[in-house]
Amino acid sequence: MKFRQVEAFRYIMLRGTTAAAAAEMHVSQPAVSRLLSDLEYSLGFSLFDRRKGRLHPTQEATEFFRSVEESFLGMEKLESVASKIRTRTPSELNIASTSAIASTLLPLALQEHKKYFPDERVTIHTDAMSALVIKLQTSSVDLAIGLELPQLIGIEREFIGNARFVFAARSDHPLAKKDVITAQDLIGESVLTVVDDSPVYWSELGGALSSVKSQLKQNIMIDTSHTGYAMIAAGMAVGVLEPFAARVWEGRDVVIRPFEPAIYYPYGLAYPTNARHHKSLYSFTQSIQKVAQGMLEFKVDPTAMTK
Length: 307
Description:
Helices cover 40% and strands 21% of the residues. By secondary structure, it is an alpha/beta fold.
């Protein structure tokens, strides 16, 4: 089994045809077909069913492809690291963040950071948590900010603070009249559900609602809190959400209240190991910590923002 044979198989799986694979590899279509045949011979099993001139992956191909992708991800990480080393300059910072942090903590931290690096170019990527992890592991970004990550090889973490999730509803919703909302209050309500490629991040939220889950209407699924707050402002649902985006949505027919039992999630920043020698990056982490200390979202009662 040779690298070019595996590469041909991978491009066929990703692009769907030998012609498209040939274009990616800058070789002829017959050459790709030959590489594929040689690979199947060396593996001892067929990778595609050939029907009516089209290739259909076999079950064995699907299983083999998962391992191939893991191997190529490792190669792409090495290529990304090498490129980063070649092109690194002290005047550029690449940041990845969840959407809620990108619209609240991040602007304040960058404002502080720019006092010391006014001419630095900053690129911001807004992603879900699972995408943040991939960008860190491939060194595509210098820093990521969001929910605190688990311990991962090759990634350093710094804790920022715990944020208490809040209940949010449209201002004319009956529950808006209550001072504190409990899980029991949500029975019969349309309650937003968070979906993510890594649901483990939301286990505590799911646990707090588990006792009444069967009595909730959960027919609106969201993958960002800003989308959730927009649904709430339109009167489509209520939700238990992170408190940061409430800064943007409060006053737009959205009210927030404390939710019991209290749900806290740790937030943090992370960067590839050995990256902190980057002078600008070190300064930016300090700016994040300084700004976070003054944010009410990291206080015990985030609903104090409304008082």
